[in-house]
Design goal:
Blueprint (H helix, E strand, L loop, with lengths): L2 H10 L14 H9 L3 E3 L9 E3 L1 H10 L6
Antiparallel strand pairs: 1-2
Length: 70
Amino acid sequence: MAYSRLRILIMSLGPRAFKSLPEGVDLKTAIQAKNEGLVKTDGEFSAISKYRLTAAGNAKKSLYGGIKRN
């Protein structure tokens, strides 16, 4: 998976609200992030699913320099 797409995905999400995939990030990246335990989805994977960060995703976001929110 491209590092930049994963970073874009993680930086655009937070741990509370579910959001759509950001521009430039596709379903393949979202599936890989879910398999790594970084994101959670609101249901089945599809183009219209919404995502949020898990605790592991939030920790990874802080490594990227993002604001850590509880």
